[in-house]
């Protein structure tokens, strides 16, 4: 018969049969992915509709936000990024996808970022996909992050800020040649890390004092972000790699060390404070006779003592790790972007300096060391506009914040999306929407001052840098406190400009004479998207003012 030779050939060449079977299976899977998920009507790259490997490749190249922006420019508000993944750029969708009790839950992208301690996953507010758990944990620790609480931490922020300014002056200010070049990319992260260390443990971690990484924790965090960004596009890989059951079980019995370095780092610092863990922390008095300020660790253990069954020692470790994980990178990224854009836009630098000097003339900024009070800067119009525009132009997160469509499906941008589909917004595409006015690709703080009150409120509600809804970043207030306090302190301690001095009114000319300047204005920085879009190669020169502010 006709089939007999074929069957004989198959018996003689089983590997060829296996290859054909795999090919048929792969093609069948790709066809099902493209047409069988109920979202074939959503435009996007052909390969993206067939396999998640397209997403893996795009993220592996380290600039996925550029690909996402380009695709939305071509296809509109909805773009298919995977067999069951859709990116949404319409700001109006934020109120649907991320609303409180909307039914949208986090995807499996987030557990990939869970750190490991003694063979167990550390669940945090950010990495947990369980909404009930998230709500309970947030209630347990939310008071520690309220702005009213953080203002009590202001002296701790000041302590690190002063050391940061002094180190910059000692190491780099007024020096010619290579000795005067400061890598702001690194130093702003040292600052952010030490602030969160002081707020969490009442002690700087040592980055600013050392002028370098401490126990390679920055390197370890960067490795984890690189891993999570890529593997998170195909989360099943995580179960085969870092979190495979055999590896976790062996770690739980101390047969191998699978602990995340950042967890070890945090555990060591908690262990150095046994009085806090045991509820017998010594409370010295301040100059005003009031109890000493409690740091984050103290407050976490207060939550532990209120509900030890839920807020276990392991959970205290988890939220402490989360503080360091998110609290350093995101703030450092925003600070880099702010200073970089001001140096690239001298007119905006001029306007900000004039606002700061005018505020000083009103009696603010009287600290002899050049530190500033939160109450003196939090309502400065142009400073606020600069910060908002920085958050709009360079949000820290560079991937979609994924959510799973609940039962019944949802209609987004006029298109029905079935249940089980992964949808999400990427701040880099949302912030390019025409809602923010003209030339959204440009850094223009003035857009926030020119907008009507109604338009400004709409723009503010659409800023997605800290997420939205119940999952809004709990550390948002920490980050803003640092930014509002550090930026004026740096600009009034060090004279700032590009290589070409902007024209200033005579009244302020002597005060704003150069320079903190880009070491090489012709050389742009480098961006690296590993979940957070970090900047490298941001080198500056510093010159102290003739009289300190």
UniProtKB/TrEMBL annotation:
Gene3D superfamilies hit by this protein: Cytochrome P450
Name of this protein: Pisatin demethylase
GO MF annotation: an example: heme binding
Keywords attached to this entry: Heme, Iron, Metal-binding, Monooxygenase, Oxidoreductase
Protein origin, superkingdom: Eukaryota
Pfam families: p450
Matching InterPro entries: Cyt_P450, Cyt_P450_CS, Cyt_P450_E_grp-I, Cyt_P450_sf, Cytochrome_P450_monoxygenase
Provenance organism: Exophiala sideris
Cofactor section: heme
CDD domains: CYP57A1-like
